Amino acid sequence: MKLDVIKLDGGSAGSADLDDEIYGLEPRIDILHRVVRWQRNNAQQGTHKVKTRRETSYSTKKIYRQKGTGGARHGDRNAPIFRKGGIYAGPVPRSHGHALTKKFRKLGLRHALSSKMATGNLVIIEDAVLAEIKTGALAKQVKNLGWKRALIIDGAEVNENFARAAANIDGLDVLPTMGANVYDILKRDTLVITKAGIEALEARLK
User: Fold this and answer.
1) What's the DSSP call for residue 178?
2) Burial class (CB in 10 A: 0-12, 13-18, 19+), 127
């Protein structure tokens, strides 16, 4: 399939051929959900921690005698039943990540790209290069193009001037091809890919 290519100033720059196996799939929500869940679980720190009864700071002395008090039997004040005692079966530091095959992760990325294509939210630009770091000028161009929440995927490397100019623009993210992922693609309303990014993505997903 073909898609028009534009410049940052909105002018035409010809067209680009897109691979149907990458951009022409019928998006499947179940595949996208599995990949996003894998990404978010791997990103979770898992540093949550509570104190058990052996880690709280009360004395380990038995609080009163076993029999004759008319109350329940208790040991020390660290028991979970008491206020500020240890927590039973609470969270401990652990990894929330789980495995997902490379083949399935590539499939998820193909479906994410296809979903943007299917909804008409895929834009191809000639390049993402700036001669100078001009955030104001770039922000004006982005506004004129109608990109409110956009992700720009470039080739193997991102132009440093462009990346620094885009860093202070709210709602605009820039990633190299190897950083392209399902979660960031779906999170943004508009997906913008450079011609170099198209070639690199096809090489990565073949």
Assistant:
1) G
2) middle
Measure the CA–CA gap between 163 and 39, rounded to whole angstroms: 24
Q: Which stretches does DSSP call E strand in the chain?
A: 2-6, 12-17, 122-125, 150-153, 172-175, 190-194
What pTM, to 2 d.p., does this model score? 0.86
What is the helix, strand, coil percentage profile of the chain, to 5?
35, 15, 50
d(C-alpha 126, C-alpha 198), whole Å: 10
| Nearest one of 19, 163, 34 to 103, comparing CA atoms | 34
Look at residue 78 and tell me whether its pLDDT is greater than 90: yes
Classify domain 2-45+98-205 at the CATH superfamily level: Ribosomal protein L4/L1 (3.40.1370.10)
Encode pLDDT of 120-162 as tens digits: 999 999 999 999 999 999 999 999 999 999 999 999 999 999 9
Calculate mean pLDDT across residues 170-177.
96
pLDDT band at 206; cut points 50, 70, 90: confident
Among 173, 139, 200, 145, residue whose Cα is nearest residue 7: 145
Length of the chain: 206
Output the average pLDDT for the chain.
95
Residues of the chain with CATH 3.40.1370.10: 2-45+98-205
